[in-house]
Amino acid sequence: MKILGLFKKGSKAVSKAGKKGGDKAAAWPSGTKIGVYGHTNSGKTVYFTVLNEESKMGRDLQLSITDDATAGEILSNYRNIWGVATEMGTGTMVDTRGEKKFPEPTTDEIPLQFNAIIDGEDKIPIVVLDYNGKAVSITETGELKERVNGYMLQADGIMFFYDPKILGAELETKAHVSSFIGMLEKLAPLKKKLHIPVSLVITKADILPGFSGDDQTVLVSSENESWLSENFDAFQDMVLSSNKIASNSAWAGSVRNILFNLRDFLKVVVGRTLNFQIFFISNTGSTPEKIGADVGRSIYAPPARIRPVGVKAPLYWMINTIRRAKRVRGLKRFTKVVATLSIIWMILVSIPYLWNTVWLLPRTIHIEDSVLASANGNFYNTTTKDRSLVKDAWRKYSQSWIISNIFPKFKNPADRIRTRYEEFNLAEALEQLDLTIIRFTAVVKDTSLWPKMNPSDKSLLMTKEHTSIEDELNNFHAGDDNTELFRRSGRALTYWELYKNSILNPADTSTWETIRQQVLQDQNLYVAEISNAEKGLGQALMTGQKVTKEKVVAQKAGVEFDNVIENVNGNSDPDYRINKAVRELRQIRGQLNPELQGNEMAMIDRYINAAKAFDERRKFSVRIQKLPDQDHVHIEVVTKGKDPGWGEISQYFEGDEIEIWWKKGYEIHIAYDLVTDQCAWGKTASDRKVFDSELSIFDLNGEIRFSNVNKSISIRMKPDPRELLPKLE
Ligand SMILES: Nc1nc2c(ncn2[C@@H]2O[C@H](COP(=O)(O)OP(=O)(O)OP(=O)(O)O)[C@@H](O)[C@H]2O)c(=O)[nH]1
Ligand SMILES: [Mg+2]
Known about the structure:
This protein is α+β, with helices and mostly antiparallel strands. The protein has 22 helices and 20 strands. The strands form 6 sheets. It has a 7-stranded mixed β-sheet with strand order 2-5-6-1-7-8-9, sandwiched between helices. Strands 16-14-20-19 form a 4-stranded antiparallel β-sheet. Strand 12 (452-454) and strand 13 form a beta hairpin. Helix 17 (510-525) packs antiparallel against helix 18. It is elongated, with a radius of gyration of 63 Å. Guanosine-5'-triphosphate (GTP) binds at residues 38, 40-46, 102-103, 105-106, 132-133, 204, 206-207, 282-284, 287-288, 300.
């Protein structure tokens, strides 16, 4: 946008210049145009005359007239004001003293041209316009006003001349102020930045109380420039409270008066530009004496000695400020031009790069990518049509103008990719597939490389290699289904699935048989296209499996079964041996291969039968080894949960042997009678013991303590129930 803006500005400037050539405004002489915006009688004509006189010499500002019209105008005014008459002597012109008088109101607009030398260095042609101040009056209309306004609008800086003599005339001051504001608005709509320097020049400062000389000319010294960035009220406070002003109360009053009366104008300017200044000057130095009156205008005579105060300052400041502003503007424009050129250059340079990297290359890659995607990412599965699509895309890329002329380095790689698609052949693809089949074979051959079964959910634990083989086979098995590649990968995939299934069902021998049948069938059916790699795989699957399987199972079963025997036989807990172990062994038995593990299975069968025997009533002879002190016991075996009847009228003493029938679940009651107590055949007893566990027989064997009577008995059984425990052997 900025770039466009710059161009737009340029075109505007051109059209403005063109217009200038067409209308009367073009008549203004060239040079830095300084506008003096002042009402009639504000002292413009006297100012230019005095200024010229004052600036003939000087370090800061020097003026020299450059054209005759100006010279004539200024000279005549000079003669008037200084009272110099010219008389023709004999052959020479002689200046004589004449009557001093101020110039008449200016009648036409007169461009005055000077060369200004600033600080003895730069010579700057300048133009100022003198005119009848009526032209700026708000009541005035007409051509003159238009021309003067036209000039002002072209000016590089404007000095607003204010005649302090009208301070007392409120209405007139207001009219002047609104004319000033009107001009400012024409320069730049309110609130917008003022682009040219503006100054307020209070002429005839000699009439202001407290005005005494040059040091009062400039109101805002350069170190206080920041006051100008404040709003008007703050600005006014700062000015009036500054030492320079406040120290002279008469002068402070005059300044306050001026600021107050011109406040509406100042409010528009202050805060909008730093290029603003207020000057107090006097063309005459001392106040002229009133000698008469004309229509609406008093007539004064210039003072005897004209001692101008501060007349150079406003012009010096104006030219300097214009120069500075121009320099800044120039610099800004230069920066803009440089920035614009840089951007243009950057764009020009990056266009080919962008074209290649954002459009050309991605487009080509995209074509290849989508073709590959449709072939499962496998180059070998692409169809002839697809390949020619990719081939053409890369050819187009490598032959494009930009690649040939700007990025020749991209040409070779592009061509290499293209040739790959061009020289595609099925044989290469089949070779690739065979490599995968060979990897499959290697896995089948080495049982340690087989996928393991996860015992918890009977799923396969596949390694990276397994998944990679599976993925590759799947990748080859895509695209054109009428190729040898498709068929071969299909066969391999079938084997892969059957192989996985076999591992998942180790007990099922038919799975391996299925593989065998499949391999044989394939080798029969596709005899012409079975590759060596495929043959190798078939062999590994058919013959290898038996060997490896036997080895593995035997090994596994051997190790595991030894453990089982050890664990079971080593556990002396009858409950474990008779109940839990049976359950475990049943499970193990289910996993055994009867062909190969008949022994183990028989072992388990014997074990289970032995355990089952505990479900049948069995006779035990119970011998009371020890029963102290002639005491006796009664023993009764009952079915689960039943109370003993104590119907048997028999007492058992130490050394007695009795027979009992027992099976799993029977409970055994023993009543202990002290020799001293009365015997009730067990119904009442000195002490009792009930063995009510499922395997109570094991509790009966050995030492039995009766804690109430504090006696122990000892029983030995035949057969020892421990010897009846099932055993893996
Ligand atoms: N007190 C005082 N009066 C001045 C000074 N300069 C000019 N005058 C008075 O102001 C009057 C007008 O001055 P001009 O220079 O003719 O004013 P102008 O702005 O050219 O007026 P137009 O040509 O009508 O626009 C003079 O006749 C003087 O009486 C000054 O420095 N001090
Ligand atoms: Mg004049």
